[in-house]
TrEMBL record:
InterPro entries, per database record: FAD/NAD-bd_sf (IPR036188), Flavin-dep_Halogenase_NPB (IPR050816), Flavin_halogenase (IPR006905), Trp_halogen (IPR033856)
Species for this entry: Kitasatospora xanthocidica
GO molecular function annotations of the record: monooxygenase activity; nucleotide binding
Active site location: K75
Positions bound to 7-chloro-L-tryptophan: K75
Domain of life: Bacteria
Pfam families: Trp_halogenase (PF04820)
Claim: Nucleotide-binding is one of the keywords in the record: yes
Binding-site positions, L-tryptophan: E359
Keywords per UniProt: FAD, Flavoprotein, Nucleotide-binding
UniProt: FAD binding residues: G10, G11, T12, A13, V199, L350, I363
Protein family per UniProt: Belongs to the flavin-dependent halogenase family. Bacterial tryptophan halogenase subfamily.
Stated name of the protein: Tryptophan 7-halogenase
Amino acid sequence: MLDRVVIVGGGTAGWMTASYLKAAFEDRVDITLVESGNISTVGVGEATFSDIRHFFEFLGLKEKDWMPACNATYKLAVRFEDWREPGHYFYHPFEQMRSVNGFPLTDWWLKQGPTSRFDKDCFVMASVIDAGLSPRHLDGALIDQPFDEGADEMQGLTMSEHQGKTQFPYAYQFEAALLAKYLTQYATDRGVKRIVDDVQDVRLDDRGWISGLRTAEHGELTGDLFIDCTGFRGLLLNKALEEPFISYQDTLPNDSAVALQVPMDMAKRGVLPCTTATAQDAGWIWTIPLMGRVGTGYVYAKDYLSPEEAERTLRAFVGPAAADVEANHIRMRIGRSRNSWSRNCVAVGLASGFVEPLESTGIFFIHHAIEQLVKYFPAQDWNPVRRDLYNRAVAHVMDGVREFLVLHYVAAKRTDTQYWRDTKTRKIPDSLAERLELWKAQLPDSETVFPYYHGLPPYSYMSVLLGMGGIEVAHSPALDLSDGAAAEREFAQIREKTERLVATLPKAYDYFARMR
Ligand SMILES: Cc1cc2nc3c(=O)[nH]c(=O)nc-3n(C[C@H](O)[C@H](O)[C@H](O)COP(=O)(O)OP(=O)(O)OC[C@H]3O[C@@H](n4cnc5c(N)ncnc54)[C@H](O)[C@@H]3O)c2cc1C
Ligand SMILES: N[C@H](Cc1c[nH]c2cc(Cl)ccc12)C(=O)O
């Protein structure tokens, strides 16, 4: 039996993997995690997809167990500011798109939208977020979305199985370092062995498979399956096994970030329940409100901006609250390993691949990789078919997300700096170029978006296209021959529901303060 797993790296990827494998296999696998006391984690992964609730569910954790320990808040959307023009904003929310007579409501909106704001007309969440509200009432009851939290048929589903069934109305924002600490406790309580040491050498056998890891103080660690969670270093997969890394930088040039963790009195400031991405001259700034601080950072391309200038701009953006806060400068490796599983090594997290944090996909990649690893977990025969299926699934997720992110830049109306002008002439993936031609005639649907599971539903593409405003899209001609009354009723229902929710939901801050 293959039952000895060694994980290298104690960041979000390492501890999420250790916790999940323990929850899946209990004592039938022996798990050791080795993490360096000298090499720090990236530790800025703060915003997630809504799907991450499947991860916590799998671990048997409820929000009240882990959220207060991680200073966590709810994220109802990504709010894009200034991507179209200064002062403009729109939301990409966690809310399923309604359909009327077989056409998405956004299609009707293009023909007869009540206002100029597609997000407010088509989703209730846009106004809920503007008002700084929680999607749960103070007694914990969830906003009445077409989603039944306790539905039996929804339990135990993986993310890809769940996609398209219903849309959970929120994701989370949290301190990544605190989540890693929380999961360290969770995993070690359940028998994961933790070693704090540096891996100095990776030993390969005659076939080139990993036979052991030489550590500074704990001798040689042996195992069957080695999981590389060493971050951008890719110590096992890319360095020792020499698995090539495919860069995405030709299409996604942002390769640098500078981050600040700004302590803040959130009772005074309030919590806007979303992640904000504010366009800048050479990239964009994220703002993530947590309980007790705001996480913020400037993501940029070093070909267009120096680290010093990026830090200056970020500090000016945040204001005096950041005066005493030390900046964390990060170089990002953008792209994916050709194969994330090679021989007896699987890379998870940044060692596997990463795209810039626009749309917060890093932790989603980790979660997806772990679900797939359990699905295709190897047996003693190391059947290569399972490995290949795993590699295909992981590559599809990252390639699909790459297309989705490139769309943001191509579709953004801004052209006021060289950086933004270049987004309109830079090479884009061929498949995306073809899709864009289709979307100009007909809004994206499941037939025309990236065809493999990559986490993002067609309505996400519609939201970005309509919000960014740089690509002209048209409504379906069939709507000109159709009665629009049902769509008008739907818009009216959304308005009524929005008014009811805004009048009854508590402030997001009050909800979390009560949870603590
Ligand atoms: C600027 C930025 C913003 C981001 N924002 C988000 C976001 O909002 N949402 C999101 O989902 N994701 C985000 N991410 C991604 C997210 O941070 C990562 O996916 C997540 O932190 C996982 O990192 P990791 O565990 O793979 O690597 P790391 O955090 O880099 O951890 C690597 C681990 O390996 C250990 N290690 C390395 N070498 C050795 C060695 N020789 N011996 C022993 N141990 C070793 C280190 O000590 C460390 O414990 C962001 C990333 C960046 C760069
Ligand atoms: N898998 C989905 C992905 C998804 C659906 N709506 C959104 C909105 C935003 Cl801002 C990010 C991702 C998604 C999920 O997480 O629900």
